Every structure is written in structure tokens, then in C-alpha cells.
Amino acid sequence: MILPLSLVSAFFLFISPSLCHPLDPLTPQEIHTVKLIIQISHSASSPNITFHYVDVDEPEKHHVLKWLSSNRHRTPFLPRRAKAVVRVGGETRELIVDLITGSIVSDQVYKGYGCPPFTFDEFFKAIRLSLKHPSFQNLILRRGLDLSEVTCLPLTVGWFGEAAKRRVVKVTCFYRNGTSNIWARPIQGITLLVDVEENRVLSYSDRPRDLCLKLKALISKGRGLALFLAMGTATR
Ligand SMILES: *[C@@H]1O[C@H](CO)[C@@H](O)[C@H](O)[C@H]1NC(C)=O
Ligand SMILES: *[C@@H]1O[C@H](CO)[C@@H](O)[C@H](O)[C@H]1NC(C)=O
After folding, report:
1. Which fold has domain 5-109?
2. Which atom in ligand 2 lies closest to the alpha carbon of residue 145?
3. Where is the Copper amine oxidase N2-terminal domain (predicted)?
């Protein structure tokens, strides 16, 4: 449903004065308002907006102290603002929303390092994409495992100072084999790299089984240098 911004502003005007304290967390209604205002302002450029962070935009300390020393039961604290971090059209944006006037006070593209945190939706999407990927299914079958007993879990790929261009997660998998403890049997050597915004598996790797056996033999013989060299081959 798309409502004109002015209508939303009028509707939510003066919702906040009933708040008890300026640092109170956002109410469910306020979170909903923030979502609606941001969606309306960006719906023209992109229908898909993901929210990665929504919280109170904390007022300056001296404003809060002034309010505390005033007749605070009768004077509502103004303004009431929220800050949000969203992904829209492949960009990260940081917004400040004024909840009293129902307007966006600031809206900036974030150009710094890193990406906003992943959402649960993105994690679940990465799991679904991995389990559906035909090459991954083949790898599992080649190892004689039952695909319906495989659980995959996404991990962030980490950040090592490089310019982050894509939002990707690394997916590793476990074999439940009829139990509820997914951690007991990690499926070694198979990892997938999933782009959660392009909705696709970018790459997968399968460290060959015979190499694992070779490494095991080297470990048992305590041959450190040979192991180190073999691992170099494994990661190339
Ligand atoms: C928006 O999301 C839908 C559903 O996930 C998808 O089909 C569509 O391609 C997306 N549109 C854009 C512009 O990313
Ligand atoms: C799965 O469980 C069965 C029965 O406990 C066991 O024989 C088999 O080795 C297990 N498979 C794997 C891959 O762990």
C-alpha cells in the first residue's frame, strides 16, 4: 500500500508525547512508522528495501538533563527521532526520521568501510540457495550422503580491510544423520559462497577427499613442513 507522505505525517503527528523518557526504546508503532516513511520515500527508486538497523536517535545529553530538571511529567520531550540503516538499490543508506513531524531529516549514502549486519532473511536465503544448488547436491550425493539429512549454516566471510563490494556469506554444512545435533558431523571440505543480494551461489569449493586423507597421514607422522606444503596446495 502506498500512501502519500503528507498523509502519513498527519496520521502519526503527535504520537510520541505520551512517552515517558527521551531514551525509551522505540515502540512497535514507532518502528512501523519509520518503516512506512522510509519505504514511501524510496519506493520510486527501488521496491526492495531491507532494514538492517532501527533505533532511537539519542538526543544530546544536555537536552535530556534540561528536560529532567523541568516539569517533565507535563512537558513532552521533543524531538523524538529514529535512526535507520537500510540497503536499497545496492547502496547502504543512513537515515534520521523525525517521528513527530513524520519526515526524513537526513538521508545519506554510506560510503565507509564494511556492510550493515546480515538479516535473518538473508541468512535463510543463503541456506535455501545452497541446498538447491545442483553442483552442491552432486557433491553431497558423491559422498554417499542423504541430502534431506544435511543442514547448512551461513557464516560471514569476515572483513580484512578490502573494499567490500558484495554482500556475501560463506555456507558450510553438517550431516544430521537422524539426530538433532547438527554440530556433531561437519561435512568437511565443502563450502559455498553466496551473494545474498544477487540471490545466487557465486562459487563452491570441494577440497578433494584424497587430499584430506593425505593430510591425515602427514599429521599422524608429524611431518610439519610437508603438511604445510600440502595445505598450500589445498587452498590454491
Ligand atoms: C525485488 O524483490 C523481488 C522478490 O525477492 C525480486 O523478484 C525482484 O527482482 C527484486 N527487484 C529488484 C529491483 O531488485
Ligand atoms: C549415520 O548413522 C548410521 C547409524 O547410526 C551410521 O552407521 C553411519 O555411519 C552414519 N553416517 C555418517 C556419515 O555419519
Report:
1. Nuclear Transport Factor 2; Chain: A, (3.10.450)
2. 13
3. 21-108
